[in-house]
Every structure is written in C-alpha cells, then in structure tokens.
Automatic annotation (TrEMBL):
Protein name: Metallophosphatase
GO biological process terms held by the UniProt record: lipid A biosynthetic process
The keyword Manganese is assigned to this record: no
InterPro entries, A to Z: Calcineurin-like_PHP, Metallo-depent_PP-like, Metallophosphoesterase_sf
Regions crossing the membrane: 33-52, 64-85
Domain of life: Bacteria
Gene3D superfamilies: 3.60.21.10
Species of provenance: Mycolicibacterium litorale
Amino acid sequence: MFIVILTALLTLIHLYLWKRLVADTTRPGRTRRLLTVALVGCLALLLAALLLPRSVGVREAAWLAWPGYVWFALAAYLMLALLVLEPARLLFRRWVRRAPARDAATVTGGPAAPSAEVNRRLFLARAGAAAAGAASVGLVGYGMATAVGPPNLLTVPVRLRRLDPAFTGFRIAVVSDIHLGPLAGRAHTERIVRMINEAGPDLVAIVGDVVDGTVAELGSAAEPLRDLSAPEGTFFVTGNHEYFVDDPLSWLHEMERLGVQPLRNENTAIRRGGAAFGLAGVNDLAGARHDDAPDFDRALASLDGSRPTVLLAHQPVMVSEAAARGVDLQLSGHTHGGQMWPFHYAVRAVQPALAGLSTVDDTQLYVSRGAGFWGPPVRIGAPPDITVLSLSPDA
C-alpha cells in the first residue's frame, strides 16, 4: 500500500511539472514529445532509485541512486518554486488576454501567424519555468555541497542536576544518522571517525541509523568505527533503519565485533573515581515489528536515583516516556534537522524538537541533525553535525 501511495503521489507531482514545464512552454510537436519522454524517464529513474536497492544490492543501486535522488530533490524544489510563482502567473493573465487576437500579418492578409495572446502566454510560461529551474538548480547544488561536505563539529554545554563535580568537563560525542548505503561509504565513516577522535571525547554515543543495508553489503564501510577512541567507550542504540534489513541482530553483533557496545534496553554506570552517572539505551520504536521493542522499564532498571541518567534513544518523540521516568538527558537523532527546508515543518509536526538542546518537562533533550543524509544527497537549512556535549553540575 505504501508503494502504491508513493507512486501515485510522485506521478501527480510529475503531472504538475509536465503541465508547467512542458505543456505550457511548448507547442504541440516534436519538442513537446521529447520533453514528455524525458520527464517520464526521470520519474521512472526516481521510482527505480526508491524501490530497487533492496533487490539489486547496495553497490548496484548506486548507479540508480545518484541520478534518481538528485532528480527527487530537483523535482521537489521545482514544484515548490512553480507553486510560489502561481500567484504571479494569475496576475499576468489579464496582460496576456489584453493582446489583440492576431498580429499585423494576419490583419494585412498575410499568412496565418500565432496570436499575440499565445506568444505572450508562451513567454510568461517560459520565463516562469526558467526562474523555477534556476532557483531549483541553485538550491540543490548548494544543498549537495552541504550534504556531502564535512559535518559541523559543535560544542554544547549541558548542566545536569545531581552530577558529581568530578564529571565537570566530561565530554560526550554524539553522532547519529550516518546512513551508510548506496551514496555514502567507507570514506564517509573514516571522516566521521577522524573528526570525533580529533575532538578527544571521553565517551562516544552513536544514536542510530548507521546503515541502510546488510552487514554483507556494508560491513566494510562500517569497519572504521573500530578506530573510535574514547576512554569510557563507544555506545550504540538502534535506529529505525537498522530494522529495515532482514536480520537486525546481525548489525548488533557486528557493532560488538567493532568494539561498539550496543545498549539494548539496558544500562551501565560511567565512573570517575567514586562518582558515577547512569548511561542507558532503548531500542528504536521500529524494533516492535521484530520482537525487539523499546522497554524503558528494563533499560532504566536498578539505576541509582541519586545520580543523573543519560538515555540514548534514536527518536526524539521517545522523550515523553523518558520524562515520565525521571531521565535527566536524552540524546537522539532521526530528524536530520528536517534535512531539506521547508519540509522540516512536516518533521516538526511529529517530533518534539528538530535539533539542538531543549527541555520536555524536567528532561533535557539533545537532538543531533545527523552526520549523513537519507534519500536526496541534499541538505538545505539543516547542515550535518557531530556534537560534543560538555557536562557540568547544575548549581
């Protein structure tokens, strides 16, 4: 059903693009036919990029994914730009209709010629198409440079109640949504690992969506994670994309092999001398479909209430459960900060926060924009990031 709805929606978008970019800007004939075929081909390429990777494999899908997903972004911004221009098009309709019925050649008995109204209509349509095209190409080009470039390295101070002064300055590197797959491979992981190690954190928290494929396909791309260096270790919780493979447990085992400790509805104590705080992790909501659902009670069991608790949970929306149980700080990803403006409004409608530090009841929530991207290799208004949280006691 999802595939049917998605195909129908993309088809409607392309019908609108055909009307404004092809039918309105050309006269019947060869040019219109060629442009129509090209647009249908772009739709087919996009659908192939969306639907075929699981059946053809990650490496083979890259040949479809790059052009298909880039066109996805272009089509989205072309649609938005053309919609923005609709009011102007309606305003100019009066100017178009004021044109005389025929040009001078027809009046003087010369051969039939296109009416001035048609010429003006074509001019207006072509000007709008050119403006929409220029704006879309510019935005997508900027967004691609941002998406495939290095993530921003952010430093964010966080004050925690009941934190022992021994942990003042304790640094947690938070990274999420690496999204290894057809468009991002081993070099992407190596850059992320290098940036985290250069920041010198005490602990690394990977909060889900590392991969978009199987261990057999992406094990080599994920392997540089074994080089992450932090005195208190590297910890991981599943995101929804870890459950898109047939055997989600395979990635949990692979993370352990790479020296990354999964927290599967469990917790551990992070100690500095006689002081400590609780670090817990819950499975992603998508795990419920694989008998691996989040279990907050189990994840937070036996924690010392006199010490603060830091919870790793992929989706920010899970903070309501965390707040109900007195968690001090939840670290999340999932949103990509919206990834492509203005589509972040849709993400914000279903999540309590898009990015950064906020508070829900008495629980602080930090949401990373993620170090990678999903779908179009484009980020507009939501640059990728890796964050180092610097902890201190709340006075």
